[in-house]
């Protein structure tokens, strides 16, 4: 796979100029993912849209604690508050008229006050689906953030994405933290068995500037060695997303190296003949909008 240098160069220029592209900036937006009642006990999975730091849409699909299956839904706002002022189209809380353990969940905010919940592929059956709509939502000025919510750690979310994007996060990484692609506003959330789980009324916001480009848990290191009087600085990324892009930079005028992360999640480079001894500053800039730093010392 070749390095798409023109695209990557445009991204670097955009970052340098302070431009932060976002899938969540459109007025009409849909987010989606695969949901599972993993332990067949209780809980919910929610999609969060139009978050401005104060309020937001919060649509959740709820597990019946007696059956362990998804059987209800609630259209709400803030963090799991039922309903919103001026809601039209019916009650905020209702039964789905069916039950299932797995589904593809999508929530659309059309930017004009109408919110739609669609559940498809119920229990793996492409012919089973349900759709519900409520109106009267007042769009939030500056409400560009999206994310997910959960509680009880008994449900899971996978393959989070926007309707017009590749999969943003498939959670294909070791158990542990969600990583830099997400910001946890409330509760707890983690990756478990390559899915997202949450507890304590988890409220989690997507913060990456791209989809399907970073793992969010990359590690970055650099070192400097003296080889027969010549300083060599090497830099390495590990735990990256295969196929992702990274720009490796050594301060002091050395050329930036654009790399594609390989199938093992790694990328590396080196600079030979570094004139200055002492502390060096090395950076790994990822196309998702964050930069990691290492500070090796040349002898």
Helix/strand-derived category reads mainly beta
How large, in whole angstroms, is the Cα Rg? 22 Å
Q: How many discrete structural domains?
A: 2
Architecture per CATH nomenclature, i.e. the level-2 architecture of the largest domain? Sandwich
CATH topology of the largest domain: Jelly Rolls
Between the first and last Cα atoms, what is the distance in angstroms?
A: 37 Å
Reported for the largest beta sheet, the result is:
8 strands, antiparallel
Q: Mean pLDDT across all residues, rounded?
A: 89
Topology as a string of helices (H) and strands (E): HEEEEEEEEEEEEEEEEEEEEEEE
Low-pLDDT regions: 1-26
Give the helix proportion (percent range): under 10%
Compute the number of helices: 1
Shape: elongated
- CATH class division of the largest domain: Mainly Beta
The total of beta strands comes to: 23
Tell me the strand percentage band.
Answer: over 45%
Overview in brief:
This protein folds into 2 domains: 5-17 and 215-298, Immunoglobulin-like, CATH 2.60.40; 23-206, Jelly Rolls (Sandwich). Helix content is 4%, strand content 53%. The chain contains 1 helix and 23 strands.
């Amino acid at each position: 796979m070749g390095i798409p240098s023109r695209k990557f160069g445009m991204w670097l220029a955009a970052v340098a100029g302070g431009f932060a592209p976002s899938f969540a900036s459109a007025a009409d937006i849909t987010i989606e993912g695969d949901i599972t009642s993993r332990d067949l006990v209780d809980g919910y999975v929610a999609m969060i849209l139009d978050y401005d730091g104060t309020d937001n849409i919060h649509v959740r699909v709820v597990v019946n604690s007696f059956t362990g299956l998804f059987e209800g839904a609630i259209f709400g706002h803030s963090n799991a508050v039922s309903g919103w002022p001026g809601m039209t189209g019916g009650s905020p809380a209702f039964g789905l008229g069916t039950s299932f353990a797995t589904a593809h969940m999508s929530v659309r905010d059309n930017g004009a006050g109408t919110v739609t919940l669609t559940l498809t592929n119920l229990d793996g059956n492409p012919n089973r689906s349900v759709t519900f709509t409520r109106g009267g939502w007042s769009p939030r000025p500056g409400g560009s953030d999206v994310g997910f919510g959960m509680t009880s750690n008994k449900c899971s979310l996978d393959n989070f994405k926007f309707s017009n994007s590749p999969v943003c996060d498939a959670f294909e990484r070791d158990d542990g933290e969600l990583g830099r692609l997400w910001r946890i506003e409330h509760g707890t959330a983690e990756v478990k068995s390559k899915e997202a789980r949450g507890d304590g009324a988890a409220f989690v916001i997507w913060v990456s500037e791209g989809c399907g480009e970073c793992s969010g848990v990359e590690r970055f290191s650099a070192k400097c060695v003296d080889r027969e009087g010549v300083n060599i600085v090497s830099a390495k990324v590990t735990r990256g997303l295969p196929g992702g892009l990274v720009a490796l930079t050594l301060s002091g005028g050395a050329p930036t190296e654009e790399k594609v992360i390989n199938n093992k999640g790694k990328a590396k480079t080196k600079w030979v003949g570094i004139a200055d001894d002492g502390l060096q500053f090395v950076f790994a800039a990822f196309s998702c909008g964050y930069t990691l730093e290492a500070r090796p010392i040349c002898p």
